[in-house]
Design a protein that fits this description.
The chain is of the alpha/beta class and 214 residues long. The protein has a single domain (4-211), classed as 3-Layer(aba) Sandwich (Glutaredoxin), CATH 3.40.30. Helix content is 43%, strand content 18%. The strands form three sheets. A five-stranded mixed β-sheet has the order 5-4-3-8-9. Strands 1-2 form a two-stranded antiparallel ribbon. A two-stranded antiparallel sheet has the order 6-7. Helix 1 (4-18) packs antiparallel against helix 4. It is globular and about 50 Å long. The protein starts with a helix and ends with a helix.
């Protein structure tokens, strides 16, 4: 069984082989500008988790506070089911789901996609954990994760036939940075990692190891 790091490395190599030089340069430019902007830095270790309720892929409303009554929560924000790096991450967590449960944790994944799109993502990846729909990035904004895509990146996405706005049910072209949090039963964040580079993700084994200590 490969690690998430190995899966991402392989995907990045495929991208370098298949994408035009201009496309690679624009993606790198967008990542660099986002890193340098110092925007959407995310909540940190020691912060209190904001209260929220969101619908899952079937429309059931899930409360973070109710979930924390059953034990700590591993919370991961992803961009959407259209993002291949996000799918690798979600599949990596699915492979480690028993270890998550053994650590006494509940795994929750959140994206700005509509419930229908979230359901498609869950079914496509055969995910057995909670997938929530954060339409308009309401909760992601509480976690200070949201940024606006630059116009040149929007244009490139559209030229590639990728309509992020349609997936999200709006026209704002905003996304959350990929981020992972471990939240203890008191609602305090005990681990936080936020990535400006969408190709960088936290290895699930690392997150589970931290969760098992609480």
């Amino acid at each position: 069984m490969t690690s998430l790091f190995e899966d991402i490395k392989q995907l990045k190599e495929q991208f370098k082989q298949n994408a035009s030089e201009k496309k690679q340069q624009l993606y790198a430019k967008a990542t660099r500008e986002l890193e340098e902007s110092q925007k959407a830095l995310g909540l940190e270790k020691g912060d209190q988790v904001p209260e929220f309720q969101l619908p899952d892929a079937t429309g059931e409303i899930i409360s973070i506070m109710d979930t924390l009554e059953d034990g700590l929560v591993i919370l991961t924000f992803y961009r959407g089911g259209w993002c291949p790096y996000c799918n690798l991450e979600l599949n990596a967590y699915q492979r480690e789901l028993q270890a998550v449960k053994d650590a006494g944790a509940t795994l929750i994944a959140i994206s700005p996609e509509t419930p229908d799109a979230s359901l498609s993502t869950k079914e496509k990846n055969a995910l057995e954990f909670i997938v929530l729909s954060d339409k308009d990035n309401i909760v992601a904004k509480k976690f200070d994760l949201v940024f606006s895509m630059p116009d040149y990146l929007i244009e490139m996405y559209q030229q590639s036939g990728l309509d992020v706005a349609s997936h999200n049910g709006n026209q704002d072209w905003e996304l959350p940075k990929p981020a992972t949090f471990v939240i203890n039963t008191a609602g305090k964040i005990v681990f936080a990692e936020v990535n400006s580079d969408y190709t960088q993700r936290t290895e699930p084994a690392k997150v589970i190891e931290i969760a098992s200590k609480y």
